[in-house]
Amino acid sequence: MTTTTKGGIVQLGLIGLGKMGGNMAERLRRAGHEVVGYDRAPGKRDVESLPELVEALSAPRVVWVMVPSGDPTKATVKELAELLSPGDVVIDGGNSKYTDDQVHDVMMREKGIGYIDAGVSGGVWGLENGYALMVGGTKEDVAKAQPIFDALKPPAPHDESGQEMPGAGFVHAGPVGAGHFSKMVHNGIEYALMQAYGEGYELLAAVDLVEDVPGVIASWTQGTVIRSWLLDLLVRALDEDPELDGISGYAEDSGEGRWTVEQAIENAVPVPTIAASLFARFSSRQDDSPTMKAVAALRNQFGGHAVRAVQAQEAERPA
Question: What's a BP term from Gene Ontology annotated to this protein (predicted)?
């Protein structure tokens, strides 16, 4: 049997020791858990291969996959399906699409292996602050991994009487797929919040009237209804670079925003703010927007409005 403390697992196999996975391993070890880590980078890993990782764990095993979503996760889960034994549990803690989880669950169940999808939020700050966890799976499988989740999640808040408030930072959202679906919606909301903060910053910076833009944004972090951790991080970024001169305006999207909009369409749920924030990221990748070229041309055609030549526009750009 797996070595346990007071009813809790203290041994975990963790695959993927990057920024998130490495910090998660450290947080678990600080909580007294044993972590056997594997990563493609030789300097980070405790074992040299996935077979060695499985061999190093006592049954029933719990193995957490923390690698990029898509093909890397699919390949890892498929290999684990051949290496693990009935009664073991696999947790996918990456940003997989929830439909991938459902396929993986079927594959694992055929071999008697449990499967949990875990949406994880906390970024590089999770080591100290803890990680918000949204998990999907059976009650039995989640119970096997609960001590791991308890060690990773933030400390529970307390009410006015000093009693611990349950639920904060962790939720068993439903069956397999519910964890990553919840994290997908979380990230769609995150897109919209970041876009709103960015637009507010740009408007403040565009006028001469406001002389201390970073100071205004910092003033919002206390006592206002728009205070948040994201706002705190914007204050931190402006403290490091007040005019953000060292940062390109190119913003990537990691998939969850697209999937959120796709699901909104599938379920006829209007999400105009999230959709607009996703499209704004697409716009950020265009040096010279073909859409706006067409808009300028149309304005010239129907109203005789002047168009700006490319040469003039380039000449006005700062070196």
Answer: pentose-phosphate shunt
